[in-house]
Amino acid sequence: MLSILLIDDNPNDRLMIDRELRKTFPDLEIKSVIDAQTLEEILVTGGFDIVITDYKLHWSDGLTILHKVQSRYPNCPVIMCTDSGSEQVAVEAMKAGLSDYVFKGRQFKRLAGAVGESLKKQQLRENYAKTLAQLAISEERLRLAIEASKMGTWDWNLLTGEVVWSEGHELLFGLAKGCFAGTYEAFFACIHPDDQRSIARAVAFALENKIEYQYEFRVIWPDGSLHWIASRGKFFDDDTGKSVRSSGVVWDITDRKLSEARVQESEENLRFALEAANTIAFTWDVASGELRRSSNAETQMGLGPDSTCGTFEQKKNAVHPEDRESFLADVDAALTGAGVYDSEHRHVLPDGSVIWLHDKGRVVFDASGKPVRLFGVAIDITDRKQLEYDRSRALAREQSYLRRLQKLTSASVAINSTLSVTEILQLAADSARQILEVHQVAVNLNPAANWDAGISKFSMSEKYAAWQDYCEEPDGTGIYQEVCQHQQTMRMTQTQLEAHPRWRGFGKAAGKHPPMRGWLAVPLTTRDGRNLGLIQLSDKYQGEFAEDDETILMQLAQAVSGAIDNARLYEESQQANRVKDEFLATLSHELRSPLNAILGWAQLLQQRSLSPAVTGRALSTIERNAKLQTQLIEDLLDISRIIRGKLTLNPCAVNLISMVEAAVNTVRLAADGKSIDLRLAIVDLGLDTAEFSYSGEVSGHSQSELNPRFLVSGDPGRLQQVIWNLLTNAIKFTPRGGRVEIRLQRLDSEVELAVTDTGIGIAANFLPYVFDSFRQADATITRYHSGLGLGLAIVRQLVELHGGTVWASSPGLDRGSTFTFRLPSIPVSSLAREEAQVLPEGGNLLGVKVLVVDDEVDSREFIMFVLADSGAAVRAASSAAEAFEVAAEFVPDVLVSDIGMPQEDGYSLLLRLRSWKTEKGGKFWAIALTAYARDEDRDRALAAGFDRHLSKPVPPDVLVETIVKLREQALTI
């Protein structure tokens, strides 16, 4: 509806205007204003499309009305319809913005046309204004877009060569506003030299072919920096078809180029990472089944030349048959589930080899939830799987090894719980077969490398049931020798075993031995490194013998060797206990037997009056048995000294000829008593040979005593003891009417003495122990010969202390024996011809005062008699206290005192007497006469102040001679 504001105070004119306008605009609303107030109200409310006003109003004029309307509604058309105006008013109004000027009267008909025309013009003005506004907005948007995208525009006049750049274009080329020279050459100079030729070709090609120009190139800014520019343009032709103009845009693509470089670098890094990680990327189009892989699929994983583009079917068929079902299940779970794909499977390569792949990816679903594409990576995990396999095998081996160790521990406990060597060997065989899971085991024991006396135990599975009774003993030849003699473990396959040069020399039992499959043998070794035999295994349940098997068997062999050693040590300890018991029993017998004769004859002498002949016989028996007891005690003391390393020698040059002759003379009566033919031969007295001397002769040559070739360095008393022990033993164990031969000879730098008899001989099994202490071939109570079994032990120790060697030989029981020792000789030039001194005869003790102190009355009276018989003045005391009193009165020259006495011992007594004697002035000699006969007892006595130490029983002449020497020493001081 058209709304007109009509301002006119003439009612008739208003009616005529209304009637005329409605003819043209039937849908019309006219708002009439007849005064200023109404005008103000309507101007406030508005709602009209055009204003028609009279010029002359009783309350205003048309020009004022025009200004009021324009002040409020500047775009509203205003028509002045009046009959009172003038041309001047019309012109002024038109200049002020009046839309039209219409005269009333005849011109009313033109009013409707003026209204329509004014409305049209107003509409055009409004549309134009809108267009201008929209154009301004578009231009602003274009400007902002160009600025935001770093774009610029250019226009090139091909006819004049002029080039016009926008401000943005100049900025893109690093130029200040207005600095571009405006020529094609100036544009070309901004381009990087490496891109100029290609740009020229691209422009020429587009111009020639009348196509759009599009190219990317680098420009160098005045500051030297490099930027990437993209240019796009078009050529325009004139009516003749000639290109006369080109325009276009440029924009900065430096960031894009840098991004592309980064993307390319990233893709290169990704490619490198994929190759380094043994990984390929893949994409599977679920609908088409097409499967694409990254370019390294062929080179990296060897999937084949067509592997970069294939199908899912081909992928499925390449999966290892054993893994195909699980692979398809993984794919189905990804497609129907959350879209996460994860699968490990084996892939068969075109060359038939197999690798392990780990596929990881995600499924892309469309809007309806249907799977469209699966993309991911495939990782070559062959090395990892191999490592896992190796680890699982290593773990299995370790667990198996631990189980074996547990079995080995149990077996070791069982083996070490028995002291039977036979049981140890059988347990070892059974345990080795169970622990190492083999079909046959043999344990061979060869003590002292004596295979004939060896023991063998076997353990075989049911596989070798036909050989269950196999019990052949090896003879130590062939390949056994490699293990036992060289103390080395041997582990071989059957092929290696049969190829071994010593295998064919298996031994005499080779033909009867069960068939073998591989061989593992470990030596049995004692703690001191001697070989005891070996443990040998064959035919393992699975596979060949390995290093683990060898290690386990070596540990078992150590346990077996230790158990055998322990069993033997136990047997030796038991034997030692038996020997000790036998020795104690023998010692008791040997001590009691002489005592029986001594006590018996002593009681008869006291109780009866016997004839002189019987009395002489009794005294002779007592003396002989007392000497026998003395010898037994001396032997015991010698052994004690030897064991403790306390036996000392007083060496000098000794001629063994005189020693041997003296010993022969000593034992000749005993030999004659048994009708034994006793012969002595001394070889190398300047002669090539020497004959044995007969009874009654003791030297093989008249010059024997002067021959220096039989001189040795030694203790005369101890050497005489060695020779005497050998001779007495020979006579003792030679039956009546037998023969004993003594042969003395010089061999290079040694002197050898051999004593050969035709006596009872020595059994072969006892021969290695003949020189052991307390060992006797016959230790039973029914034995024929007496003795403690110490003589030969002392002989060996004394000979070795002199740097010599001694040994025994015998063809067997009842076939005699030979005892031989050798001593190193001494050069004749170094001798000062010393000979052993013979003890002087009894001395004269006249004028010597001796104080005897002993709590044993028999011993005290015996000593008093011996000393008084030699002329000494003797006083006696039974205790240390009594001795001190006697000494104060008697003032002795010599004190002979026991050590062990009640209340106060001999050491304390001597100390008191020494202190008292020092106060009184003078000196006396002190002799310790005691049953404490050890070397440390002697040392202690001398340290306490005694001048000599004598052990009981003491021969009378030795006691007297000791005092004589002390007296002589006192006279020379």
List the helices and strands and how they pair.
Elements (H helix, E strand, L loop, with lengths): L1 E6 L3 H14 L3 E6 L2 H10 L4 E4 L8 H11 L5 E5 L4 H9 L4 E4 L4 H41 L2 E7 L5 E3 L1 H6 L11 H6 L3 H17 L3 E8 L5 E12 L5 E10 L1 H23 L2 E7 L4 E4 L2 H6 L7 E3 H7 L2 H16 L3 E9 L5 E12 L5 E10 L1 H34 L5 H16 L1 E8 L9 E6 L18 H6 L5 E3 L1 H6 L19 E7 L5 E10 L6 H61 L4 H33 L7 E4 H18 L3 E6 L28 E4 L1 H17 L6 E9 L2 E8 L33 H11 L3 E5 L7 E8 L24 E5 L3 H13 L3 E5 L2 H11 L3 E4 L8 H15 L4 E6 L4 H10 L3 E4 L4 H17 L1
Question: How would you characterize this protein structure?
Answer:
The chain is of the alpha/beta class and 973 residues long. A six-stranded antiparallel sheet has the order 13-12-11-16-15-14, with helices on both faces. Strands 2-1-3-4-5 form a five-stranded parallel sheet, sandwiched between helices. Strand 15 (354-365) and strand 16 form a beta hairpin. Helix 1 (11-24) packs across helix 5 and helix 20 (716-732) runs antiparallel to helix 21 (791-801). The longest helix has 61 residues, at 547-607. The termini are far apart.
